[in-house]
Amino acid sequence: xxPPITWPVLAIMFVLxxxxxxxxxxxIEAWGQKVIPSPSQMAGFVKVANSGDFNVALRGDxxxxxxxxxVHGECAVPTSAEPFIDVAAGYHHGLAxxxxxxxxxxxxNTYGQATPPSPNTGFVAVxxxxxxxxxxxxxxxxxxxxxxxxxxxxxxxxxAGWIQIAANDETCVARRADGSxxxxxxxxxxVPALNSGxxxxxxxxxxxxxxxxxxxxxxxxxxxxxxxxxxxxxSGFAAVAAGDQHALGVRDDGSIxxxxxxxxxxxxxxxxxxxxxxxxxxxxxxVGLRSDGSVSGWGMDDEGQAGGPLVADAVEVSWADRVGxxxxxxxxxxVWGLDVHPPVPNEGFVQVATVPFSxxxxxxxxxxxxxxxxxWDDSGITPAMFSPNxxxxxxxxxxxxxIxxxxxxxVLVMATDLSLxxxxxxxxxxxxxxxxxxxxxxxxxDGSIxxxxQNAYGQLAVPEPNQDFVGIAAGHGFGLGLKxxxxxxxxxxxxxxxxxxxxxxVEIEAWGPYLAAGRRADGSxxxxxxxxxxxxxxxxxxxxxxFIDVSAGYHGIVALRSSAATAVGPELPMASPLTLxxxxxxxxxxxxxxxxxxxxxxVSLEVLDLAGRRLAVLWRGELAAGGAHTAQWxxxxxxxxxxxxxxxxxxxxxxxxxxxxxxxxxxx
Length: 668
What we know:
2 helices
């Protein structure tokens, strides 16, 4: 964590700008219990602080921004009529100093660590440990409050002459104007052998890293994975930062040197390792600020604390607990979180689905790839349970199971629970699937919904009339159905329908216990359900427009906002983004069939008889937003059999549970 800058020397602060790249597709935003702000919000910073799983940043105009873990409201930063001049982040709480010298705290407050002490005046800097806080006053004294097992909240004596403070976990360090330092809390010894000439200090978990005026570094305290082996050469450093078990040093040449524990890549500085002016180190992750104002994060990113994936061309996104996946227009994937890596080869993907610690991805050849192993391996789920792994056109994932739709309209469930695994007969005619915690849903060609699994909350009781559905979603104990008129129906756990007006929806999503999301044709979002006291953190960030995809995860919402911020107009009332055209109709001997899409989506173009049996697959492929594909059909089945005169059903469908059908007539 970069130490607070001594007040009032503000001229050495650096500006952080996270540029928004305007290309096709969308940028990722997340809110709820995990936060990734929009690129436009991540701009103009002069300081970033962290120590746990979230960051709080100070802008040059005195406003605040935060991202990462938000279970306790860590990212719900306050506003002020006067500018803020300093910030600090503990494990689950934040602190800020106003220009008049008062403090503001937020986040978890179990021990009063977010409640400013009295009198709340005269402060110039702050620091935060795990469950305690420190404030530096203009008179050079330190005030501590909250609780730590090592009494770190009690400042050392004599308590005078201090100009800089830093804290992490239960370790504190402070610097005096004469260049001497003092450390206290969970750390021994509490002073270096030569205690003079220090210009910067950083506190880690049980250790301290100091910067001398000659550009060299000093470490003392705990030794995690070689922390006491300082970088060679130990010279030319301009700033230091310390995390939970690793440290960072910024050199005069703009490069960063990282050492200590590297279990999650927190010491793997991304290329180009140049142009850095400052660094901050959190709980198994790192953040670097470049001279051009951009920010780079690396290491553990399961809460979005390293900044999340910097993508601007994603067309689909899914983020459950600890794992996120974004799909790009070219069929490649960006993955982030805990113990997941991009697939090899990273190409040809048409749909993604995530669960805690793991994810599934569907390739355009009809096979499914699993990313991550942790959760499903513990549940006895293996990739071989999708057998045969072929001819799959749609997937979804529940808490400990997964479901697949085959191109013949049948469903396969990967589960150990027989109530989830056993698909109700007849296992035919399905057009979409959805998996919840202990629930599966299947959408039939006739617009009805079939539900199976456990029924503790009535989640299997699809309300009547069970017809005219075009989309489905399943949570933990509830189901959602999207009607062709753009309205949503909910059942199971008492989950209300959208509160802002149940109309105009083109997409519905659910995953967690009581949380649902919907996207409207005009590009706006609706979030509803029981958000357990965190209602304000689930509000859609303004402007509520231009969204092209949304995913309701276990702990919040992740969405894609169009890079061009172009909302779909209300003149498109159909729930499906697809449209079909056939010419001539009736036809003989062939018909030209065109499918168009207002969104980027993978499409299967098929011909069925009126009983719903698939006769021919004319085309499968990715359609870009606004794109179209034309195929010819000569009245023959996939086996080459000439079909008799009559009426047939032309259908376009996608893995997103969207479909559209049109009747065509063959005249021999």
